[in-house]
Design a protein that fits this description.
Helices cover about 35% and strands about 20% of the residues. The protein is an alpha/beta fold and about 190 residues long. It is globular. The chain binds S-adenosylmethionine (SAM).
């Protein structure tokens, strides 16, 4: 029975996320099956488009994925020369898979930036000083997001928000760039002055 369910999930994943499956085949990772909790991975081309549109000094900037899941976004970001890349995930199983994926990615020489995966509540995790890009693919709702953003605020903060379900939270922020179409619309926000 479990075999059948797993096969169903594998096929569903292949149909819905061919780009993700190609990413995993290239790097020996497993980021594609959204088979645990509310994990659903970002599509690689969406991440690439948003990263291309950033107006930051990449080598001096820390990239943080709040709700890193199996780590795909952090690994994609680490292909660019960020100062560091951090992924925070509260689920133990997903965090473990992210660590395994990092090892596989490293073994094939995928990384340009250091990557750190932490297990914990992303909304409470301390953030490093300095220029910061936060990546959000709807890890939590507005009640958690608003105070978490307050703690992250700084003039050189940028937020990449994919499938922005809680757009209203950013009403007073500036949209610096945007692209994609539902459900893969993305925005880059800068904080209010
Ligand atoms: C939609 S998935 C996005 C995964 C990844 N960021 C990506 O785009 O490929 C959201 C993730 O947020 C995680 N998450 C939800 N609330 C969290 C919290 N408070 N702290 C850390 N992770 C959280 C979930 O377990 C899930 O893996």
């Amino acid at each position: 029975m479990f075999e059948l369910v797993n096969e169903y999930r594998r096929r569903r994943t292949l149909e819905k996320h061919p780009e993700g499956v190609a990413f995993d085949a290239q790097w020996g990772t497993e980021t594609s099956a959204f088979d645990w909790g509310n994990y659903e991975p970002s599509r690689p081309s969406v991440v690439a488009a948003a990263l291309d549109a950033l107006d930051v000094d990449v080598p001096n900037t820390t990239f943080v994925d709040w709700g890193a899941g199996k780590g795909r976004v952090a690994l994609l970001a680490s292909q660019r020369p960020f100062f560091r890349v951090i992924g925070v995930e509260h689920d133990a199983m997903l965090h473990k898979i992210a660590e395994e994926n990092l090892a596989a990615f490293d073994a094939r020489g995928g990384r340009q930036a250091p990557v750190y995966f932490f297990r914990g509540d992303a909304s409470r995790q301390p953030l490093p000083d300095g220029p910061l890009v936060l990546y959000l693919y709807n890890p939590f709702g507005p009640d958690v997001l608003v105070p978490a953003l307050q703690r992250a605020l700084r003039s050189d903060l940028r937020v990449i928000y994919v499938n922005p379900l809680e757009e209203l939270v950013f009403t007073r922020w500036s949209v610096l760039a945007s692209g994609g179409e539902k459900p893969w619309a993305w925005r880059i926000y800068a904080p209010p002055e």
